[in-house]
Amino acid sequence: MKERTFLLTIVFIICVGAVFLALGILGIIPVGSILIQLTYILSLSIIILFALIGAYFVGMITTHHIIRDRSFTPFERSMLEMREDVKKLVEVIDELKERINELEKGKKE
């Protein structure tokens, strides 16, 4: 997907350059103006490319620092302990249900 986007961006830049070149050859736009426009488009493209690469690396660094030394907060620890307590209570309730079912079967017989 990333390769496709990069390829589409390059194709778009080439197409825009070709349009300006064709307009210059046809005499619609003065040739000096075409060179200025092409230089402007090329410089913007390079700046955008470097900005995207920089944003990617800043994001990687930020994410790494956030996740690197991550430990559970006291609230998260208490929630994990509560989860274990709930599991134990569910097991106890299941055992009680089984005993009640056995007692009810014993009364019916």
Give the class from helix and strand content and strand pairing.
Answer: mainly alpha
Please give the radius of gyration in angstroms: 34 Å
Shape: elongated
Q: How many helix segments?
A: 3
- Span between N and C termini? 69 Å
Number of strands: 0
Helix content: over 70%
Helix-strand pattern, N to C?
Answer: HHH
Strand content: under 5%
Domain count:
2
State the major sheet. none
Explain what this protein looks like in three dimensions:
The protein is mostly helical and 109 residues long. Helix content is 89%, strand content 0%. The chain has 3 helices and no strands. The chain has helices spanning 2-25, 31-68, 74-108. The longest helix is centred in the middle third of the chain and has 38 residues, at 31-68. The protein is elongated.
For the structure shown, list the relevant keywords.
elongated, 0% strand, 3 helices, 89% helix, mainly alpha, 109 residues, single chain
Question: What does the secondary structure layout of this molecule look like, with pairings?
Answer:
Elements: H1 2-25, H2 31-68, H3 74-108
Helix pairs in contact: 1-2
